[in-house]
Write a structure and sequence with these properties.
Elements (H helix, E strand, L loop, with lengths): L10 H10 L4 E4 L2 E4 L5 H18 L4 E5 L3 E4 L4 E3 L3 E5 L11 E2 L4 E5 L5 H5 L1 H7 L6 E5 L5 E7 L5 E7 L4 E4 L4 E4 H4 L9
Parallel strand pairs: 4-7, 8-9
Antiparallel strand pairs: 1-2, 3-6, 4-5, 6-8, 9-10, 10-11, 12-13
Length: 192
């Protein structure tokens, strides 16, 4: 059995293909990676967080995008789809198609079994190189827990954590305090 050589794509080829695709893919270093589907709790948590942030941003000079807004990390070349993206001020895009954001201030990922290690490790390493990014938030789908990393003026990232349905956490990048009871509304941890 012979190995089939893998063809590397240019970023332009990736974007052309991705814009025609019904499925989402990450792109890094010439390779594309299919994004896996999400479980029920993941979707409920992502929807709850998205709704809370959307409500908070009404009337403000910020926009939030759910999991279909692609983000480009210029320093590393990663194209990816965070679960939730927030940009304040004028959004900057890779090109005139307006589907690849360059300047997020807040990125939120809902953790899943298949991506948790990547979200905490390599993905966060990529995200830290985005100059505009001020905050990175990881939300569990298996328990009432949220971790946030806040960028300090010296470039260091400081971790804070909220645990339990009675807890609250402040998203400093958008001056928004959210209750975990609202984030995990209708989430049954025993489902999964």
């Amino acid at each position: 059995m012979s190995a089939i050589p893998k063809t590397k794509l240019t970023p332009e080829e990736y974007l052309e293909s991705e814009r025609k695709s019904e499925e989402r893919h990450e792109y890094f270093n010439g390779e594309i990676f299919a994004m896996s589907g999400a479980k029920r709790n993941h979707n409920k948590v992502a929807t709850n967080v998205s709704g809370l942030i959307w409500q908070h941003l009404k009337g403000k000079d910020c926009e939030s995008y759910s999991n279909d807004m692609r983000v480009f990390v210029p320093k590393t070349g990663l194209y990816t789809y965070p679960d939730l993206v927030v940009v304040c001020g004028e959004p900057k895009f890779k090109d005139n198609v307006l589907d690849t954001l360059l300047n997020p201030i807040l990125l939120i990922e809902v953790l899943s079994d298949s991506t948790e290690g990547y979200d905490r490790g390599k993905r966060f390493q990529h995200y830290r190189s985005i100059e505009s990014l001020r905050e990175y938030v990881l939300v569990s789908q298996d328990e009432a827990r949220i971790e946030k990393y806040l960028k300090q003026g010296d470039g260091f990232w400081v971790l804070s954590e909220a645990f339990g349905l009675d807890a609250k956490i402040k998203l400093d990048a958008i001056d928004c305090e959210i209750a975990l009871s609202e984030v995990f509304d209708k989430v049954n941890f025993s489902d999964e």
